[in-house]
């Protein structure tokens, strides 16, 4: 194993088009923070880099939806995301953004370097173009019917109903999100990174040299490589992003997945003038913490970019996690099926560490896992309160009760004392090994086992009984218990920094240091500790019920919205165009089905102006006899049209619901025929 002088930790850049939720925290940011805090406790040189990804189609879609500019969107959500991370103790050395001047310059220069070295393919291809909006359409600007599950509303890059990755050309009945029109194919020029040329390098670097990578990461990389890599476009026809810095590239920007990982470099540049020793020195170890949807970009595309540039180090490990589900269902921003971090802190004030602990203990490290509110409550009440908090509270309370808060001088250790002290060191070693290998679930479990060890020690020795018969023995028991408590305040720091700081304050300890946790005597006899307070509080059923009710409300709203296929708004018309339409209230006098047709009814309608015939395609929805006497609204000045040999003189107005059922549009109470709709 290489002995590195320093470590660079990066975490995936979240899209600044919405707040962050527990899935983000569990998959990327808590693991990255745990590892970074651990290295800092060991006194190692480490930088933790983060930032917001502020380019790409999701941003422009959000801006369009909210009727604001892309810059307004990223300003709003960058600040919200940054605050959420700060509130949860995610200890970035810098949290930057890809709209910064430094980033634009760095990304443009990176592209230009590869361009000048001839590392790109330049070719024309056909891409969907919106003839009404007069612009090329990125994948997310195209929707249609999924060719796999046949659900409508699939995007040009993925169907969110079945999760299948798509090519926009695969969609059935594609439509432009911008105008609702049918897109056409039009030629455009783009630059491609020829991943196929990097395949031999990737095979050796990943499949031979990094077999220690997590099985889910290694397996996905192997699958991609075995299928054969293809050139990947690094440019897009958009007006939001980093402009392509070459002639003939007007109206084109860097593809967001080329641009975003360069954000790690630009953020490091912003942080320190010595940025190159973290990016270009082989004695620096680079680690990417990401979710499984980013594995291909961080293990195949970004390393190929770095290799093509030639002066950068490559990642030593990419400990990616799988996905966290919520109450048995996939977390979804669009369906509001999530636990948002800023909302969590409104409902569970000062309980950041509870969520950090639960997400670590239940982390989706090699397979998808499920977060449930009942498990959250159980882990808090049965583990944090009943095990960790209980042990700490008893140790501190008894020390104040027996010795006025002063650490007692121990006597001779018996065999049980020696066994317990040995157990402390063994558990610290297990935590260390698990952290070194990115097994954070195992690490926090072993750390909690130290609290279990302390509880067992107190329960078996019963100092509250011995104090009356053997007070000298109690001094040894409380001394050892306080050493366990002090070790816990350091051991739990990477996982639960807020409660660890609180515990060290109670113990009168200075800043944490990993080496100190291994000392047999952390708190010396005569050391004065402060008054204790509860580290964790029980979470009641009513608090959990409120969270479940919020999710139930989201589920109900989603069920009501399910199946709704709302077409995009048509082009605006002038008021003069609208004023030409003469819409009146009329009454159906007669109705009969047209022979040899399934859909057509012949209606006789009193318009107030006259009585006229209208042929309407509503026969599959209404029986003729049930609509006689119904008042309707009708466009009376529509040019007459011959339908099945009958002159139809107007059109009645109908609405279509989510199931395709027709509903009459009419007045809610009887009104005179001929009344105008204004």
Automatic annotation (TrEMBL):
Which parts of the sequence form the motif 'KMSKS' region? 330-334
Q: Where is the TRNA-binding domain?
A: 577-678
- Report the main location listed first in the record: cytoplasm
Known EC number:
6.1.1.10
Q: Name one GO molecular function term.
A: metal ion binding
The reaction(s) annotated as catalysed by this protein in its Swiss-Prot or TrEMBL entry are: tRNA(Met) + L-methionine + ATP = L-methionyl-tRNA(Met) + AMP + diphosphate
Cellular component annotations (GO), alphabetically ordered: cytosol
Q: Which residues hold Zn(2+)?
A: 146, 149, 159, 162
Q: Pfam family example for this protein? A: tRNA-synt_1g
For the ligand (ATP), the binding residues are 333
Parts forming coiled coils: none
Reading the lineage from the top rank, the first entry is Bacteria
Q: Which CDD domains match?
A: Anticodon_Ia_Met (cd07957), MetRS_core (cd00814), tRNA_bind_EcMetRS_like (cd02800)
Q: Where is this motif: 'HIGH' region?
A: 14-24
Gene Ontology process terms (BP): methionyl-tRNA aminoacylation
Q: Which family does it belong to?
A: Belongs to the class-I aminoacyl-tRNA synthetase family. MetG type 1 subfamily.
The protein's role, per its UniProt record: Is required not only for elongation of protein synthesis but also for the initiation of all mRNA translation through initiator tRNA(fMet) aminoacylation.
UniProt name for this protein = Methionine--tRNA ligase
């Amino acid at each position: 194993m290489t002995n590195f002088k320093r470590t660079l930790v990066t975490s995936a850049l979240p899209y600044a088009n919405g707040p962050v939720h527990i899935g983000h925290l569990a998959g990327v940011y808590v693991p990255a923070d745990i590892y970074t805090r651990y290295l800092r406790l060991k006194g190692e040189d480490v930088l933790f880099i983060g930032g917001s990804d502020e380019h790409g189609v999701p941003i422009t879609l959000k801006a369009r939806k909210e009727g604001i500019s892309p810059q307004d969107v990223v300003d709003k959500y960058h600040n919200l995301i940054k605050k959420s991370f700060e509130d949860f103790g995610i200890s970035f050395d810098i949290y930057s953004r890809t709209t910064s001047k430094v980033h634009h310059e760095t990304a443009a220069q990176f592209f230009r370097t590869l361009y000048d070295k001839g590392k790109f393919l330049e070719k024309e291809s056909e891409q969907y173009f919106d003839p009404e909006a007069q612009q090329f359409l990125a994948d997310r600007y195209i929707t249609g019917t999924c060719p796999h599950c046949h659900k409508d509303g699939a995007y040009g890059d993925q169907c969110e109903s079945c999760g299948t990755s798509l090519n926009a050309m695969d969609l059935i009945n594609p439509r432009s999100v911008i105008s609702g029109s049918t897109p056409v194919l039009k030629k455009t020029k783009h630059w491609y990174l020829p991943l196929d040329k990097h395949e031999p390098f990737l095979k050796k670097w990943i499949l031979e040299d990094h077999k220690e990578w997590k099985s889910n990461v290694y397996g996905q990389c192997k699958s991609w490589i075995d299928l054969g890599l293809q050139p990947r476009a690094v440019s897009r026809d958009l007006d939001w992003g980093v402009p392509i810095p070459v002639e003939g590239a007007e109206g084109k920007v860097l593809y967001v997945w080329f641009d975003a990982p360069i954000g790690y470099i630009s953020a490091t540049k912003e942080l320190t003038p010595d940025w190159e020793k973290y990016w270009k020195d082989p004695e620096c170890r680079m680690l990417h913490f990401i979710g499984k949807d980013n594995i291909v970009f961080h293990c195949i595309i970004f390393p190929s970019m770095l290799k093509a540039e030639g002066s950068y180090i490559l990642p030593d490990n990419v400990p990616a996690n799988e996905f966290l589900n919520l109450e048995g269902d996939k977390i979804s921003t669009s369906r509001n099926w999530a636990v948002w971090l800023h909302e969590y802190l409104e409902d569970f004030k000062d309980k950041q560490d509870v969520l950090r602990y639960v997400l670590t203990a239940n982390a989706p490290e090699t397979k998808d896992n499920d977060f449930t509110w009942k498990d959250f409550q159980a882990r808090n009440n049965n583990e944090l309160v009943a095990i960790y908090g209980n042990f700490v509270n008893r140790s501190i309370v008894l020390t104040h009760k027996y010795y006025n808060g002063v650490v007692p001088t121990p006597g001779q250790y018996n065999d049980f004392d020696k066994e317990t002290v040995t157990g402390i060191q063994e558990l610290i070693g297990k935590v260390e090994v698990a952290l070194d290998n990115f097994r954070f679930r195992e690490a926090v479990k072993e750390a909690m086992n130290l609290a279990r060890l302390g509880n067992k020690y107190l329960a078996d020795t019963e100092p509250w009984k011995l104090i009356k018969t053997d007070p000298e023995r109690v001094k040894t028991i409380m001394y050892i218990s306080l050493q366990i408590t002090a070790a816990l305040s350091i051991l739990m720091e990477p996982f639960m920094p807020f409660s660890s700081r609180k515990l060290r304050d109670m113990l009168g300890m200075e800043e944490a240091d990993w080496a100190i946790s291994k000392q047999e005597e952390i708190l010396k006899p005569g050391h004065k500790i402060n008054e204790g307070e509860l580290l964790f509080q029980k979470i009641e059923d009513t608090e959990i019920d409120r969270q479940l009710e919020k999710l139930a409300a989201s589920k109900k709203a989603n069920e009501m919205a399910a199946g709704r296929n709302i077409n995009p708004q048509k082009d605006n018309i002038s008021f003069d165009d609208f004023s030409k339409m003469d819409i009146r209230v009329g009454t159906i006098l007669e109705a009969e089905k047209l022979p040899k047709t399934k859909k057509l009814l012949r209606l006789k309608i009193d318009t107030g102006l006259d009585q006229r015939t209208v042929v309407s395609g509503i026969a599959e929805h209404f029986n003729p006899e049930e609509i006689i006497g119904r008042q309707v609204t009708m466009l009376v000045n529509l040019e007459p049209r011959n339908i099945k040999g009958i002159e139809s003189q107007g059109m009645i107005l109908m609405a279509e619901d989510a199931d395709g059922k027709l509903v009459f549009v009419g007045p809610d109470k009887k009104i005179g025929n001929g009344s105008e709709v204004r």
